[in-house]
Amino acid sequence: MSDGANVPKSNGGGPAGSGSAAGAPAVPKNRIGLTAADYKGSKSTLCPGCGHDAITGSIVQAAFELGLEPHRVAKMSGIGCSSKTPAYFIGRSHAFNAVHGRMPSVATGAFLANRELTVLGVSGDGDTASIGLGQFCHLVRRNVPVAYIIENNGVYGLTKGQFSATADVGSRAKSGAVNELMPIDLCAIAIQLGCGFVARSFSGDPKQLRPILKAALSHRGTAVVDVISPCVTFNAHEGSTRSYTAVKEHDAPLHDVTYVPHFENIEVDYAPGESREVKLHDGSRVVLKKLGEDYDPYDPGRALATLNRGREEGKFVTGLLYVNANEAALDKDLALVDAPLASLTLEQVRPPRAVLDEVMAALRSGRA
Amino acid sequence: MSDGANVPKSNGGGPAGSGSAAGAPAVPKNRIGLTAADYKGSKSTLCPGCGHDAITGSIVQAAFELGLEPHRVAKMSGIGCSSKTPAYFIGRSHAFNAVHGRMPSVATGAFLANRELTVLGVSGDGDTASIGLGQFCHLVRRNVPVAYIIENNGVYGLTKGQFSATADVGSRAKSGAVNELMPIDLCAIAIQLGCGFVARSFSGDPKQLRPILKAALSHRGTAVVDVISPCVTFNAHEGSTRSYTAVKEHDAPLHDVTYVPHFENIEVDYAPGESREVKLHDGSRVVLKKLGEDYDPYDPGRALATLNRGREEGKFVTGLLYVNANEAALDKDLALVDAPLASLTLEQVRPPRAVLDEVMAALRSGRA
Amino acid sequence: MPNALSHGVNDFNVHVATVNGSGSQTANTTLLRAIFQMGVPVSGKNLFPSNIAGLPTWFTIRVNEGGHLARETRNDVLVAMNPETSVPDIAAMGPGSVIVMNQGLPAPKAPEGATIHTIPFDAMAQPLVPDAKLRRLVVNMIYVGVLAQLLGIDRAEVERALEAQLGRKPKALAMNRAAVDAGFDYAAAHLPPAPFRVERRDKTAGKILIEGNQAAALGAMFGGVTFVSWYPITPSSSLAEALSGYLERYRRDPKTGQGTYAIVQAEDEISAIGMVLGASWAGARAMTTTSGPGLSLMTEFTGYAYYAEIPAVIWDIQRIGPSTGLPTRTSQADLLSVAFLSHGDTRQVMLFPSSVDDCFDYGMRAFDLAERLQTPVFVLSDLDLGMNVWMADPFPYPDKPWDRGKVLSAEDLERIGKFERYRDVDGDGIPYRTIPGTKHALAAYFTRGSGHDETARYTESSEAYPRVMDRLARKWETARTWVPKPVVDEVPGAELAVVAYGSSRWAVEEARERLLADGVKTSSLRVQAYPFTAEVEAFLARHERIYVVEQNRDGQMAALLRMEYPERGARLRSVLHYDGLPLAASTVVEKIRIGEREEVGVR
Amino acid sequence: MPNALSHGVNDFNVHVATVNGSGSQTANTTLLRAIFQMGVPVSGKNLFPSNIAGLPTWFTIRVNEGGHLARETRNDVLVAMNPETSVPDIAAMGPGSVIVMNQGLPAPKAPEGATIHTIPFDAMAQPLVPDAKLRRLVVNMIYVGVLAQLLGIDRAEVERALEAQLGRKPKALAMNRAAVDAGFDYAAAHLPPAPFRVERRDKTAGKILIEGNQAAALGAMFGGVTFVSWYPITPSSSLAEALSGYLERYRRDPKTGQGTYAIVQAEDEISAIGMVLGASWAGARAMTTTSGPGLSLMTEFTGYAYYAEIPAVIWDIQRIGPSTGLPTRTSQADLLSVAFLSHGDTRQVMLFPSSVDDCFDYGMRAFDLAERLQTPVFVLSDLDLGMNVWMADPFPYPDKPWDRGKVLSAEDLERIGKFERYRDVDGDGIPYRTIPGTKHALAAYFTRGSGHDETARYTESSEAYPRVMDRLARKWETARTWVPKPVVDEVPGAELAVVAYGSSRWAVEEARERLLADGVKTSSLRVQAYPFTAEVEAFLARHERIYVVEQNRDGQMAALLRMEYPERGARLRSVLHYDGLPLAASTVVEKIRIGEREEVGVR
Ligand SMILES: Cc1ncc(C[n+]2csc(CCOP(=O)(O)OP(=O)(O)O)c2C)c(N)n1
Ligand SMILES: Cc1ncc(C[n+]2csc(CCOP(=O)(O)OP(=O)(O)O)c2C)c(N)n1
Ligand code: SF4
Ligand code: SF4
Ligand SMILES: [Mg+2]
Ligand SMILES: [Mg+2]
Known about the structure:
The complex is a heterotetramer, with two copies of chain A and two copies of chain C. Chain A is an alpha/beta fold. Helix content of chain A is 29%, strand content 18%. Chain A has helices spanning 51-66, 81-84, 103-113, 125-130, 133-142, 186-192, 206-218, 244-250, 300-312, 330-333, 346-349, 353-365, and strands at 73-77, 94-97, 118-124, 147-152, 155-156, 162-163, 197-202, 223-228, 251-253, 255-260, 275-279, 285-290, 316-323. In chain C, helix 1 (24-37) runs parallel beside helix 4. Strand 2 of chain A pairs parallel with strand 16 (446-448) of chain D. The structure holds thiamine diphosphate (TPP) (2 copies), iron/sulfur cluster (2 copies) and magnesium ion (2 copies). One magnesium ion binds at residues 80, 124-126, 153, 155-157, 164 of chain B.
């Protein structure tokens, strides 16, 4: 389904379509017959108004619209307010709330154990850019298929508002301290490391965020989605550069983003030259409609330059920054069997007696 | 002294100049009266022909020519063949051979304890790009004044030749395994993180390496020097992209580099347009003589593009890649007293009785 | 088990149940301080969730003229403000208790013999504060007035306590004052006085109220700390943040803006301890503060520091582990982990502060110890001690200079003419060190975790290595004589002995009083450090039946004692408490009684 | 102390001193294998430096018909090829010894009663190999010929051993064969036979020679490992690399090129264990292998795994610690660190393989245990066991299927209709788990280190937490009954008992024989796992004087035993060895004798 509309539409043709008979309005179902409610989790315990809750909402909607099978989704996270959120969406999926900053390694292991899983990682800026920077970079380098969402508020929410490594220069903490250090731009780092899908969005812009999430979930490789997500409690005072209003004001979208899933045949009609189309691994497409300058998401140099210029100008450049679907993912590099490793039977993984005999003979004779 | 010549010259005017009286040739001394031998360390235990030993030689020479005071130098390293080398140079300096990958944090602490120290960090590609990537990035982000030398051979030498995270794609290990993953370009990462001095060189090119080392030691901020340094034992076979010959062949210097120290008044004569000059914090200069295309070392976008293009073309782009001497170093950010913290007396650091009384009164009344 | 000592006047417990992030902190502090100002000893236990806003939170104020400051589990007065917990909160109250409940909250049948006052807090707040958001915060101040009136807390003292907190924000002050007044007036008009009363005494004159982490921060400042690196983690962040505040205020020259310290928020705990080691090695007085997960991350580096002999002070504000654990629940479960932190034959020095006074004192002394011993010193505090407010005498100004241990200056080197970094010159296992920057040809040496001989040269010699290890063992014996000795209370005729440490001290002291009142005499030992000093062994040798009280599941102190004193191991019995809430005397009494009953059975 | 059993025929020690990186490995293996092929038990100890090339290295070949494979400290034959160490190496030889020395090496006065043969190795090599670089490597092969002739080693067996190694490189084979021949011929012409001789026996028929790490790798493969993540570190890298080799060969379909396993070289040990936990959680059989520093880095994650109950197998090939330590020196000093790895009340399961057979067996069994217990299982091997070559019977093909523990499938869930991740359904403390991807509405649960209740829901409840902790304690008691039991040798009339574990086994067995020969009877216990099983306590209870032999400074096993069995703590005495070289029987005998002498003094 396309993302033009805010209201989710069903796959069409199913028993409960958006155009169902008048009377009791049927709850919309997706292509596997689930409702949006089926993608919810338990009640959030975050602060009312927290940007992270808005992202949760977009994740729920994206998963619903994509028709993800909950049992095939693995929700991975680190530690922080952001990393708590997997409890609040897709309650029917397994989740792994790891130790602080080390979710990437856990996600890597989980994916390799079962390459049929859709791995959805949620982290914070502290979790990823501070303690977790090394693991994050190595996840990207290995191109592990994970939709890696950073809920980026520039502070450590859960420990009460200290600066993280993505805090903007000159930003003032609630305690009064001023940040002197340059922020780490995780999108730029990911691009430099060869990441094949890099996007930035804003928790307050579900129209942009949702298609980006869907595209990230369709990309077979590491997909980094850095979502600016205001912390209303510790980074929304005067001097904050990440309050809802500050971000809203400085949000500079590169394009309008529309996601077209592989299972729908939808034409997005834009005049030629007005838009670009990006093809993803599973056959789905992203249509980017020009806003101002034409932006080529296949050009890493352009992406880096755009990000760096944005930072200098105090802007949050959002949109699909860079895409490259040509790199093999880690499971291909390792030449894994098709079936999930987790599903192999003893017969498949214990070599026969002849092998042991062969090895013993070699150890007896000293012949390699 | 300039780097045009290979033979070190004294500061001039001293008792033992290069032009000393005929007869017994006097050993050249530097501006503080030490000879090059005074900058040596104990005998190397690395493999004969190891690139790291060549870098050690260049460090000895650079330190000698700069006239560094050995007691003011702190040699920091991680773990690896490369990280062993501080034992082989400037034997009269304190050294700290830390745990694997965590030298940056130790160097940060040492510098803050004594901001008068010249901190010279030596690491390997495994030590920095694999286990140490997070700490490396955060050192750069904090702009800790450290001349950070990476002795980059694409493998773990000390543990016998496994790939490191800087191994080139398609490179073949001695064991036969082929590396599928993209190398991490530490220079590019440093530039993206705002590092104010980033250079790449080759252990086999002391004429280029030496002035770069001197410049790095004169830069007040993190100076990253990535030195391609062949491992003759584990990365010099067929299929290696980092053997001496392979590197020599693919070395693509951006410019000829000459270092002019602040304590010498030397004119470097190049026709206008032929060279660029870079001023460093202590008044010394680096003169970059054009080779082919003009290269602007003040342009980070250009630097990134150049590196990324080089990688695609299988070249090692060497030279002073990027420089920016305007960022405040960490001690300025923290507004430290001028005297080294390590030198403060009890009177300077224990507040007087009145302060305790004031605090106690507040705790009694509950008044903040 | 009902609390025998709770008799109403200056001896009761107030339990306040609110919603996290609703600003009840100011209200509770106002109450606590007002009581304190009336001369009556008081303590507060904050039982808060790991959450920024929205989850249930509790605060218990213990009023105790006898000066008992441990947690008391029996609540006499309840303030129920949280609809999510009001049913169980109220149901848990016993006969004779008084319950102040916000109107409209779900409530169970009133517990037998309890008095319930249902109060229209929201309606009362309405006219005071038009803004709904602000009103939520001010509602809490109304219960302060209600309680104060009910419990006989002086209105002037409440005013004073409020003013002390909000004096610099006149608008907020006025609003809150109005709320307090509304509460007072309402209670005066509608409610009978409670059977629990605060009466003026003079037992708090001159005293202070302070949290352990704050005390530790003060100690560090007066101990001359020059370098701090840390990574945020509950419940240790408040130590670093208090220290940062004090240093900013008292160690930065207002004219030049320059400070005599560096404080760095690291990117993680590996980096924090790495910076501390680098700074300490280069001559700074360096420390970090953390809690369980951070401690685990410091494992490799602190093992390195043991072997390379680098001083470091590490505060571990213990919380429930393992892993992310329950960050707002207290614990004493890191002893075994710290004692052997890092692979190989590593032994780490630990201090166990039991009071805010200790926190202040060890805040300084840990540096002296670390620098004299040239090794990491771990100070094991906990959430209860570190983040709750405790009453204490004002801290004494340090009467001794610092002791930076065996550091050789250029002049020393010139005089001695020789320097070997790892030679045991004095026979105490502790070598001499030099600081980078020392201008002398002999000063430099090479620091490494790998094998070294006495001259700090690399070696793999099978003779040099055991020599190093034996010297480190000798140093450990020296440490044994330098660390704080235990506090012993030997009671003639006592059949039982009780061993405790850290924040368990208070419950144990109170429990011993209760046991004594029942005719059970006990001697006691409060361990203040590891390695154990000779006094510990002597105490164990003197007693046949020894209860070791601790807040963990595995009896970690008992385990260490058994390892160290195999001859006495069989005398030790464990009293364990590990539900994450601070230890109460009743738990100690009860478990010792059970133990004694079993003892009788055995005999 | 001279070795009483050393009598010349099939019982002596050859010590070879060369330069690291000079290719002596092939030479020494040829010698060792030739002896082995003659039916005489033999072992090799590689005493190598932490260096790639240039530093001194030694290799000791022990020929022992009696089958004693531990290190023997007294050397009977020396091959001195390294000018840097020849003086001390030669000086250390005793009367009756035979020394083969390269001509031109510095040498001390010949030790009394020793025979020195000075041999012009370099000159002999010259005509064989024109290339100087290659020649350096071939020189070593000449001493093989010389020694073989001196010691009566069959020329054909030397040939065969050489061919087995170099058969696939005909040019190298020819060159080396010529060198061996030159050595043989030279010795035959110039040297008298040595008093140390190898005579054919049939004690090695059918046996294999293998390193512990290789055996562990084989075990893991036959145990059905599907996921490995590791980070290079000596002495554990060879386990991962052997495993990688075997998997590549036997678990990858040659047609499709696809493998039934994933092996990832991580960026550090934190990542390695993180991947292992993720993979195991998602259903793989997952393991890692490391040594001290890496172990320290895994602290936080393994504590998490204990609490979140995730299986994991961690091989710790112990080397000298702490920190970077001496990576090529052996040690048994990680016990205390592992037992309490991670903050909080954490207890980790340990296995102690003592032979290459155990390495193979535990290579499989550790998975079963970890998955059945849903907890990390640490296998504590060491450098001596892992990287030295040992003789053994061929490993038996596993006769049992794997046991993956309590995993519920979609069908199970359908049948049961209920799933609570952390409920103790069976009373053994071990709950049921599900694997992500299980297609059932009940399957999903939330894994976290933070507080959870039986349903895996987040809670900070002070009732739920102790319930979880008590269940984990119950699981620990279950583990006690599932881990390998100790091996007990109860000798009637023995006054002494000896406790040992891991690679110390061999020196202890030999020491007990020697003591017995002296009329001292001993019983023995070989601990194979922690937690200790009931048999351990029973053994301690039966014996009054117990020597605990271990390769560390702090008596770590004794410490664990004292903690666990306070009633027996006082019976334990420590025999400690910690110079980094493998333990020898003579050390054990000597230290027990000293202990006994002191005992007599005491009595
Ligand atoms: C090893 C470790 N160190 C510190 C902590 C404490 N801690 C919990 S969350 C957090 C920061 C989270 O920041 P971020 O990832 O930005 O998440 P946010 O709360 O802002 O969403 C920290 C430091 C921890 N749990 N573990
Ligand atoms: C925590 C830890 N893990 C692993 C090791 C083993 N180790 C020693 S050096 C090294 C790699 C060094 O590689 P690099 O930095 O590239 O140095 P090189 O030897 O190539 O110069 C490793 C993995 C260690 N010492 N500590
Ligand atoms: S503290 Fe900030 S990040 Fe955390 S829940 Fe509240 S608003 Fe969100
Ligand atoms: S192994 Fe490689 S890196 Fe190490 S010393 Fe030898 S040549 Fe140098
Ligand atoms: Mg954040
Ligand atoms: Mg390297």
